[in-house]
TrEMBL record:
Organism: Desulfoferula mesophila
GO biological process: dTMP biosynthetic process
Domain of life assignment: Bacteria
PROSITE patterns according to UniProt: THYX
Protein known as: FAD-dependent thymidylate synthase
Length: 229
């Protein structure tokens, strides 16, 4: 059994200049102010669009992210319907195969230190699930049948594509203190990176969660989780 921390990877994000130019061209169509487009007009125009709440304009640009997390987190992500998803399938992935290391991979919970009793109970449950899963496969069960015993902590990969308006909505909800701690583990650093790469679209949200983003860099304890072992 392999235990890993969650993470994300940006798979597709056009250069900032292209995103700004596209959104400006779309937005100025509304006001018929294309004649005001210049080599440096886009950043300020887009900031005004975002500040004014005219967010339908920023739907013209999209972003694709791969999340590596537990299945509980993906259950929350897919509730955001204005997006496209492609997820690792436990129907077809046979974790007994060599390419998976003949083992399951699980996401380490941030809630408990490794030397705590809750963590030991969790680890034992994961090991028992792995043993049952591998035994079912060895006994002739298909992966789609053996997956019945796989845990919520099972590592999965999900690729999510959404327009920038939807990403603002998702990251605003999933970065708040009301969100599940494990989804905040990926949403806060993603928001921080997007604020650096596309500040006109995300800097205001990053400012809203600035302390949480900074705390995340200090480790799980700052987010209400366990210190790393």
């Amino acid at each position: 059994m392999k235990v890993i921390a969650p993470y994300y990877e940006i798979l597709f994000l056009p250069p900032r200049e292209q995103v700004l130019a596209l959104v400006e061209a779309a937005g100025r169509t509304c006001y018929k102010s294309e004649h005001l487009i210049s080599s440096d007009s886009a950043p300020e125009f887009v900031r005004r669009i975002v500040d004014s709440g005219h967010h339908s304009v920023i739907e013209h640009s999209s972003l694709t992210v791969r999340f590596v997390c537990d299945r509980g987190v993906t259950h929350e992500l897919v509730r955001h319907r204005l997006a496209a998803y492609s997820q690792e399938s436990t129907r077809y992935a046979n974790y007994a195969q060599d390419r998976f290391g003949s083992q399951i991979t699980v996401i380490k919970p941030m809630f408990w230190p490794e030397d705590s009793e809750p963590y030991r109970l969790w680890e034992a449950a994961m090991a028992a699930a792995e043993e049952a899963y591998l035994a079912l496969l060895a006994g002739g069960a298909k992966p789609q049948e053996a997956r019945a015993v796989l845990p919520n902590s099972l590592k999965t990969e999900i690729v999510m594509t959404a327009n920038l308006r939807e990403w603002r909505h998702v990251l605003n909800l999933r970065s708040s203190k009301a969100a599940h701690p494990q989804i905040r583990q990926v949403s806060l650093p993603l928001l921080g990176e997007l604020a650096e790469r596309l500040p006109e679209f995300f800097a205001d949200l990053a400012e809203k969660y600035a302390k949480d983003i900074a705390d995340f860099a200090q480790g799980p304890a700052a987010l209400g989780g366990a210190e790393p072992a």
